[in-house]
Amino acid sequence: MPIKLPFSGRRQSHPTDLWTQCPDCQEMLYNKQLDKNQRICPRCGHHFRLRVDARIGQLLDRDSFREQDAGLESVDMLGFVDQKPYPERLEAARKGTGVRDAAVWGTGTMSGTRVAICVMDFAFMGGSMGTVVGEKVTRAAEYALSERLPLIIISASGGARMQEGTLSLMQLAKTVAALGRLADAGVPFISVMTDPTTGGVFASFSALGDVNLAEPKALIGFAGARVAAGTISESLPEGFQRAEFLFEHGFIDMVVPRPRLRETIVGLLRYLRAATVVPDKSGSNGSSPMSRPLSYLESLTGREPKEAVHG
Amino acid sequence: MAEQPAVTVAAENRAALVADQEELRNAVWGRVQLARNVHRPHTLELLRLMATDIIELHGDRLFRDDPAVVGGFCKIDGRRAVFVGHQKGDEVNENVRRNFGMPHPEGYRKAIRLYRLAERLQLPVVTFVDTPGAFPGPASEERGVAEAIARSIQVMAGLRTPIVTVITGEGGSGGALALAVGDVVIALENAVYSVISPEGAASILWRSPDYAQQAAVAMRMTAAEQLALRVIDEVVPEPAGGAHDHPDETARALRARIAYHLDALAGRDRRTLLDARYARYRRMGEFVTITSAGEAKQERGGWAERIRQFLESGRAAIVGDGVGTLPTDTDLDEDDVPLREDV
Question: Is the distance from CB of B28 to CB of B217 less than 8 angstroms?
Fold first, then answer.
């Protein structure tokens, strides 16, 4: 990996076999070869899911990533027990994946352009969004706003995390409200949907990019396909809830194969710069009160770790 | 880790606990059923009882009029407002026409249109929430129900006029939240609010919809618990038999509280209003920060812990043993991690 993230033990705790079978074409793929090919099946082009470190390594300039708020961990607000208590599930997920929760955010550069980026990891409890994921997306958006950096969010999630109940649901509002302020201030946001992007994540920040991108054949939808099928007697349309289906229906700008994702985003960033109008000339409030950072955000910026920036 | 150990139960207390759990399950499930009661007064019924000069508006100007979402102008105790709400029917044909209160994307786009209108007219918005969820069918997906919900949430979050939200019945997931991003969120006593339906949660987490009652308990979906979690701000009591027993009494109680909050919000300047609304959702949820020394630093001075203990008091932990036969972990397919919302 070109970057080093503070994840420990992932390699050791994942004793992977040497071979992986492609779920699409059934070809047996040599894992090293698969990794070298950005985890895309060389035979049929199936995109395997990416862990967060691999994703960041593929997208950002070498060694440019600086993770923020790495220490955030979920707590069990509800005392939630299904077949297992939630804290045990969290602990198992942390041990199994080497990450603290299902999202990582930080800053980095893409072909020299500084960006704020948040990447989700499906391996951690299905990429589900609880308070920590919502907090990281929100902090990434707030940081992007205060620094006027383009924001990129790579989604991979089954939806809201049930174990945090309505507090997970409230993350939809929290993240979307932050993105609203970003949009009002003219700071761009690129949403990249990968397999899968469903439920409350698709129904909040993922759907709201100034530009929405998706990886080929990624499952993207609001309701589980079984639920959707159950509501009608007929069968589902061909390619239902796949990236190409959403493209056809006008919710995605481009379906981008993984090897072209970085250059596509870099190309977009040449156009998607933060608007230069910052009407906060000393004393004047500007004509639009929404286009300057609001007082609440100003109080937050002191909390964000400052970092030594870019190369 | 940062967690307290799960509540441990002495053997001699276990029988009592099992009885408590049954009682608890029945109590919670009773409220879920009241919230879903077909005779419960819905948005238009409540409005007719509490408001005057009601003018309903129709259509999203893009595709069609969604009967599952109603909206328009009304006067609540003399205060002019724009209302938007889910609408169920109280008998079969009407319920089918209303799609059981499950909106398609056009329902949310109608709502967005009305929010914008309210903003332009500087009228406050009152929303009424009562839906099992957004409609999950192919037509809904094709027209972008997720985008419509996300957009509605975003418009509400930044709307430059006051918003009072009332959860009157079922607050079902994103389809409910899309009408529920208020400055103040109040709920009727027997209303429920959850991230997924209890049946959906049971299907995913317990692998069987038969565990819906356990899921309802675990998700803390009753109005009282949502108040403790500060997801809602106030609970309005219902008549003894539930809202459907005395709709007029229910509407009267609601009217007073809506009017109170409309008045309280009316005086705020727009910046203060928007900052407070942003802060209301910004604080939702709880987490800890693990320091470099490996300690868990609590946010807001252990507030989460206090809330949890508060929730825990008067309620036993829902432990697996003694509650009949739960499927074991080995029954679970490891590849298909059952840890996420899937509806």
Answer: yes
Alpha-carbon distance A71 to nearest alpha carbon in chain B (angstroms): 4
What share of residues in chain B are helix, strand, coil (percent, to 5)? 45, 15, 35
CB B281 within 8 A of CB B75: no
Which one-letter amino acid corresponds to residue B28?
V
Give B55-98 pLDDT, tens digit per residue.
Answer: 999 999 999 999 999 999 999 999 999 999 999 998 999 999 99
Rg, Å, chain B Cα set: 21
Contact between residue B140 and residue A222 where contact means Cβ atoms under 8 Å apart? yes
Task: Give the other-Cβ count within 10 Å of B37's Cβ.
Answer: 16
- Rounded (10°) CA dihedral B166, B168, B172, B176: -30
Strand partners for A66: A107
Question: pLDDT tens for residues B54-65?
Answer: 999 999 999 999
Chain B contact present for A295, CB below 8 A: yes
Whether the CB of A189 is below 8 Å from some CB of chain B: the reply is no
ipTM: 0.87
CATH class of the domain comprising B27-282: alpha beta
CB-CB under 8 Å, B290 with A166: no
Burial class (CB in 10 A: 0-12, 13-18, 19+), B272: exposed
User: B112-115, long-range: CB within 8 Å, 24+ apart, which pairs?
Assistant: B112/B60, B112/B148, B112/B151, B112/B152, B112/B155, B113/B60, B113/B61, B114/B57, B114/B71, B114/B72, B114/B82, B114/B84, B115/B82, B115/B84, B115/B152, B115/B155, B115/B156, B115/B159
For the entire predicted model, the pTM comes to 0.86
The domain locations on chain B are 27-282
Cβ of B285 within 8 Å of Cβ of A170? The answer is yes
What is the rounded distance in angstroms from the CA atom of residue B127 to the CA atom of residue A87?
36
Q: Which of B136, B157, B281 sits opposite A223 (nearest CB)?
A: B136
Domains and CATH numbers, chain A: 51-270 (3.90.226.10)
